[in-house]
Specification:
By secondary structure, this protein is of the alpha/beta class. It has two domains: about 170 residues, P-loop containing nucleotide triphosphate hydrolases (Rossmann fold); about 40 residues, no CATH class. Helices cover about 40% and strands about 25% of the residues. It binds adenosine-5'-diphosphate and magnesium ion.
């Protein structure tokens, strides 16, 4: 069994006496996994992401990353192993130029300027945005800001990457390149936690999913079965992706047997069915 990267035990988080955003959550994430936290607006996903990165401390319960409690003093040594991309890029970018934002964490860790700049440029190239290096982050388009934010989280070569709503407000092409990048990094061994309400993107991003609602985890399982479970999602004010809903209607008419979770699986089902037909 792979090493436990994240261990969350009976965690509660209160913003104020009558606002409990996370309520009694427990789960584990193992090395190399890709896990989605799926839930409607206000479910507590962003709060949970902050708890996982050790940026918020639980009101009660414990979060451990790489075996170290986020409350402990030792946690400062673990923090560089975790990259987090906030829901809002404005929370992530505060320097005058893109390259300064991306190299910021390295320079903070005492990496010399030349190496910090070299690694930052490599990361910008990986994200296809090397040309933005001297621009002001605040004058970029939303999709560009989002990619710069991802660069700031990746520059340190983290072992765990937490992405909060990575696909929100991205055009289709940016979205696809984000999905490809995330899959590539995960294949290379990066552990991934993606918090989102985007049922369309999730099946392409992660393998396992936790459904969060009202501050609690209400169910969990493989993304392909969870995301096509209309009743389960409905209980959390969500619905399956459009392609799954289309196949559910075809299945109700007896025209197909399976319900896919994404376009690729839908294609395979139809290809098989249509080529059987033409062959008979
Ligand atoms: N900084 C904050 N101060 C007070 N309440 C907050 C703060 N951030 C979020 N909340 C509240 O906590 C709950 C969970 O929010 P959040 O974690 O942002 O959910 P999600 O990311 O799933 O939309 C919501 O009721 C939200 O209004
Ligand atoms: Mg959120």
């Amino acid at each position: 069994m792979q090493e436990t990267i994240i261990s969350v035990k009976d965690v509660n988080y209160r913003y104020s006496a009558n606002l409990e955003a996370v309520r009694g959550i427990s789960f584990e994430v193992r090395k190399g996994e890709s896990v989605g936290i799926l839930g409607p607006n206000g479910a507590g996903k962003s709060t949970l992401a902050m708890l996982l990165a050790g940026l918020f401390l639980p009101t009660s319960g414990d979060v451990k990353a790489f075996g170290v409690s986020t409350r402990s003093k030792e946690f400062e040594h673990v923090r560089p192993r975790i990259g987090i991309v906030f829901q809002d890029p404005e929370d992530q970018l505060f320097n005058n130029t893109v390259i300064d934002d991306v190299s910021y964490s390295l320079r903070n860790l005492g990496v010399d300027k030349e190496s910090a700049n070299r690694r930052s440029m490599e990361t910008l190239e990986l994200l296809g945005i090397a040309h933005l290096k001297d621009r002001s982050p605040h004058r970029l388009s939303y999709g560009e800001k989002k990619r710069v934010s991802i660069a700031t989280a990746l520059v340190n070569s983290p072992e765990l990457l937490i992405l909060d709503e990575p696909t929100a407000n991205l055009d289709l092409r940016s979205r696809r390149s984000l999905v490809e990048l995330v899959n590539l990094l995960n294949k290379q061994g990066l552990t991934l936690i993606v918090s989102t309400h985007d049922v369309e993107a999730l099946p392409d991003l992660v393998e396992r999913v936790l459904i969060m609602e009202g501050g609690k985890i209400v169910s969990e399982g493989p993304v392909k079965s969870i995301i096509t479970d209309e009743q389960l999602l409905g209980e959390a004010s969500l619905e399956p992706p459009a392609i799954s809903r289309l196949f559910m209607r075809l299945k109700a008419r007896g025209l197909v047997q399976e319900v896919p979770s994404n376009l690729e699986d839908a294609f395979l089902i139809l290809e098989k069915k249509l080529s059987n037909k033409s062959g008979s």
